[in-house]
Amino acid sequence: MPPSPAIAFPPIYFPPAAAPSEGPSVTIPDVPGTSGFNITEFVVVVGFGTPSQPSALLFDTGSDLSWVQCQPCTGHCYQQNDPLFDPTKSSTYDVVRCGTPECSAAGGMCNGTTCLYNVNYGDGSSTSGALSQETLTFSSSRKFSSFPFGCGTTNLGDFGSVNGLLGLGRGQLSLASQTASSFDGTFSYCLPSHNMTRPGFLSIGAAPDIGKVQYTAMIKKPQYPSFYFVELVSIDIGGYVLPVPPSVFTSKGTLLDSGTTFTYIPAQAYNLLRDRFKFTMKGYKPAPPFQDLDTCYDFSGQSVIFQPGMSFKFSDGAVFDIDIFGVMIYPYVDHPAIGCFAFASSDPTDQFSIIGNTQQRSAEVIYDVVAEKIGFVPLSC
């Protein structure tokens, strides 16, 4: 989708939130991919190699293997903002050999003694090349040696202009798994709101205990071992709880994903949610649909917008209150006053519902993989 500009209305001020502690963790800033990278995911800058070569990577909880575009690009490389990673300029680069556990985790493909990788994503994009290992730098004092990653020489699809991807899934090759022994198997992120009043962050390691976190169980699905599922049972919009049984959500399950822009729920629930949203917004001028989003409004001339609050409730009683900027998205650069309800109906053939990154904005989302729980701390960035 086109970049989403900052909302063209007076920003709402929230009091500063406590920053993550330094403790057993490392924290780096994150920014929306719409800020110069032409994607709707979120981006962090890390370093690969010795000396470190900066790489802007989208981070994705639905992917395991991290990768960057590499020289020489023998297949296809899309245009990125930075130079391609050059293994010949690093003293710590090496390929992963065939027969190793890392090669097996990547699928076991080989070219001679060099392990190969190939990853295909749900939107049809893909990356392939040599499975490699390198020093990954998060800060001057935090480096991860022999980090497995894909040195991509054939990369197809829409990745904007980032250098590659940082995988935070549950699989063996993900950053979360590779750093588990040093950082307690925990990571968190805060995706900044559309108004960008405070910076976002990605933290690897234990989050501070600030007493405001709402934890819900991290659900496993054997058929999707790398994904993080939660058990959503109801949605509250403006104090109105959708009158649908929990089984509407639980029968297929709900994926929490940083790499999906919108939230997709079953049609039975979505229709009721959309109708209730329309009821609360009936004083505003409707606008044409945008892609999957069928409920849009033209707020031209409006200095203040009143919209309903929303929250997700999970089977164990945990509640995730959605930020005001997580309810709507403003997708047009040339028409910044047009906003759309950032929810959509899932296809009947879809395997699960998805809570996308728009709804996660401004909250710190904590993934405690060892304890198998996910926490939410509203208004953290």
TrEMBL record:
| Taxonomy, superkingdom | Eukaryota
Which Gene Ontology biological process is one annotated for this entry? proteolysis
Q: Where are the bilayer-spanning segments?
A: none
Q: What Pfam families does the annotation carry?
A: TAXi_C, TAXi_N
GO MF terms, alphabetically ordered: aspartic-type endopeptidase activity
What InterPro entries does its record include?
A: Aspartic_peptidase_A1 (IPR001461), Aspartic_peptidase_AS (IPR001969), PEPTIDASE_A1 (IPR033121), Peptidase_aspartic_dom_sf (IPR021109), TAXi_C (IPR032799), TAXi_N (IPR032861)
Peptidase A1 domain residues are: 42-377
Record PROSITE patterns: ASP_PROTEASE (PS00141), PEPTIDASE_A1 (PS51767)
- Active-site residues (renumbered): 60, 257
Which keywords fit this entry according to its UniProt record?
Aspartyl protease, Hydrolase, Protease
Q: Give the family from UniProt.
A: Belongs to the peptidase A1 family.
**Listed name of the protein:** Peptidase A1 domain-containing protein
